[in-house]
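Retro notes - structure team

What went well: the batch runner handled both jobs without manual restarts.
What didn't: labels got mixed up in the shared folder, which is why I'm recording both outputs here explicitly, each with its sequence directly above its tokens.

Job 1
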Amino acid sequence: MAGPNAADRLEHVRYEIRGRLSRRAHELEKLGHEIVHLNIGNPGRFGFRTPQTMRLAMIENLPAAEAYCHQKGIFPAREAVVMQQQNRGVMDVTAEEVFIGNGVSELIDLTLRGLLNLHDEVLVPSPTYPLWSASVTLNGGRPVHYECRPDRGFLPDAADIERLVTARTRAIVLINPNNPTGAVYPESLLREIAELAERHELVVMADEIYDEMTYDGAKFVPMATLVNNTLCITYSGLSKVYRACGYRVGWCSLSGTAQDNRSYIDGLELLAALRLCSNVPSQWAVQTALGGYQSIHELTTPGGRLHQTRQAVIDSVARSPWLTLVVPQGSMYAFVGVDTAAFPDFDDEAFAFRLLEEQHVLLAPGSSFNTPYRNHFRITLLPEPEQMAEVFARINTVLEAMHADLARPAAVGD
């Protein structure tokens, strides 16, 4: 008797960060090979620790964490998000407009589910974190990708975005600082995007999970400070800046015209209630995280580990005859290019598999991030600088072999 087939809605859903390459890496590990996992921004895998004050806050409040909490989250966590937004100049948010979720991933799904009708369109960057495109598709919408080209420093063009707006467009997604490219959007560009969103009454969905993670003086500007005449949803959480991926705590806050969108907020509360609540013990770390010392700055300034590893990537690419890089200004990733003049038929996925099999390095092909080109790959900046330099030595070993294969004349009969 035949078993069930996968649902049709999964046909166009991709999440290769944990796809075939990751499964093959797991198989190799079971055979005894040590794999360098650069495919996922998972700080705990590379020795980073959550700040001790956050761990203590959870322990001290465990007796208060055994029951379900309010569907939006515990009040101290939501109020901490309000205070952070107010400190940034976003004054129209109260705890009623804040939702705590099991990571930002759950809230992306929840907010899109509450917004989209069948065949509605959402403007999504390319490259993009693939969860955004997948969540739009799974909730009946259609992701429409706007280009953030390498020759523009992976920054979009507001006029190009506006030409994609149709009668079915409901929202625009921004990821700033960006995953996978590390781009940090300048205020002037953000203002242009905010204005076009207001003109077309689009919901602005601002994924700012890497908000405090910037380098070399790059300035992060919260999108909610620029959006006044349409709804703005800001997403963030503990997983990256606070190195607490396993806590699974994210939040979203609604501003702009949120007070005029009570029906939508009520819909989100209904969806939040259906899942009862998010992880309660970890929520007790939010207030301590947002109100305490921001240790991330020790890691991203000169001498800090993330800054040093980023420099190791920059130096390694500069030494390679085949690699290119738009230097990341934020987040914990680099989106590395391969010279197509040297490798005219370069395929990022085939390269990633070869690198994994021969050198035991796992990275994410650039096309996993919804790009129209196949000559990039994403790596995380989490390893020690010395290990990152070794990783690039392995990458160049594979590229050198591939280049030699191209130079070798084909055998007779091939």
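Job 2
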Amino acid sequence: MLINLRVLPRSSKNEVVGKMADGTIKVKLTTAPVDNKANESLVGLLSEYFDVPKGKIKIARGLTSKNKVVEIK
């Protein structure tokens, strides 16, 4: 399953906000996008949200972008 995400780093809390008008899911993260920390937080948050192990989640596109495509196996 591929999911389009819009990630907002340096937010006040970690949360999946919901779907935007175009179907993209908005996610807020408290971590800054430095040294891959935001991507690690994103994988952890999605793991809890979708109740799947972290190893099943892969960022397919957008490693350095706010717009990401995530694959959940």
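One thing worth noting from job 2: The chain has a mean pLDDT of 95.
We'll revisit the folder naming next retro.
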